[in-house]
Amino acid sequence: MGMNKKFSRRDFLKLSGLTLGGLAFSPFLPGLTDFDDSFVVRIATAEMPVRKAATDESQIQSTWYRDELVHVYEEVTAPLPLHNPVWYRVWGGYIHRGRLQKVKTIYQTPLSSIPEDTRVLGDISVPFTTPYRFSQAFGWQPLSPPLYYGSVHWIEAVEEGPEMADYKGAWYRIFDELDSNVSYYVPAIHMRIFPPEYLAPISPEVPYEQKRIELNLSTQMVYAYEYGNIVFET
């Protein structure tokens, strides 16, 4: 299937129905009905040991590897390490919270279209998704690394993507800020579109020159100022 083929409204409605109806049975995506993502973490490092007890000195029971998803049963605060003493109880033992990402699997209803010369912002709403690029020489090719949960991207079109056995729905064409000459594509159900109010100015009555954001790398804190006073911190 070539690139840049636009969706008609009829195509969109037909493919949306097929896609949502088949998701629960698709190996391309976790099932909608039996996948429990109430507390799931993604391994965000090369490997993560599962220890018998919540301490770095405890015996290693098993190992999880990058991008594997782990269900967390309980959060435990241990004496060590002092800077980050939180551990998670998982199947077979405990893993330390460092280098883990909390994730969700939330499928989205795709937009039917995006106006020409317009971009909308969205973020990834599944643990990770594989982007694809198209070239006349090689056709559709998957890219690495994947796009991860919560990462934000500019979307500039709704189009057809690569032919896949397990997904027949719409794809979003993503604007690549590092290389604007080549776009890439992700399944539209994997991205949440930001509503306009997300991008609206905060405190529009305050002049821009009276607003300031301060990022403290040492304390990992962010401060927002208006008229020299802190109005938000996290």
Briefly characterize the structure.
The protein is mostly beta strands and 234 residues long.
Can you tag this structure with a few keywords?
3-stranded antiparallel sheet, SH3 type barrels, 234 residues, mainly beta, 20 strands, 1 helix, 3 domains, flat
Topology:
Elements: H1 9-22, E1 40-43, E2 47-51, E3 60-65, E4 69-71, E5 74-77, E6 86-90, E7 93-96, E8 100-103, E9 120-124, E10 128-129, E11 132-135, E12 139-142, E13 147-148, E14 152-159, E15 171-175, E16 184-187, E17 191-193, E18 211-216, E19 221-226, E20 229-233
Antiparallel strand pairs: 1-4, 1-8, 2-3, 5-6, 6-7, 9-14, 9-17, 10-13, 11-12, 14-15, 15-16, 18-19, 19-20
Shape label: flat
Number of domains: 3
Distance between the termini: 46 Å
Helix fraction, binned, reads under 10%
Given helix and strand content, the structural type is: mainly beta
Compute the average pLDDT. Answer: 86
**What is the makeup of the main sheet?**
5 strands, antiparallel
Number of helices: 1
Proportion of strand residues: 35-45%
Parts with pLDDT < 50 across at least 5 consecutive residues: 9-27, 30-35
Name of the level-1 CATH class of the largest domain: Mainly Beta
Which CATH architecture of the largest domain is right? Roll
The strand line-up of the biggest sheet is: 16-15-14-9-17
| Number of DSSP E strands | 20
Provide the succession of SSEs: HEEEEEEEEEEEEEEEEEEEE
The CATH topology assignment of the largest domain is SH3 type barrels
How would you characterize the overall build of this protein?
The chain is mainly β. The protein has three domains: 9-25 and 105-196, SH3 type barrels (Roll), CATH 2.30.30; 40-102, SH3 type barrels; 203-233, no CATH class. 6% of the residues lie in helices and 38% in strands. A hairpin with an 8-residue loop joins strand 15 and strand 16 (184-187). The model is unreliable at 9-27 and 30-35 (pLDDT under 50).
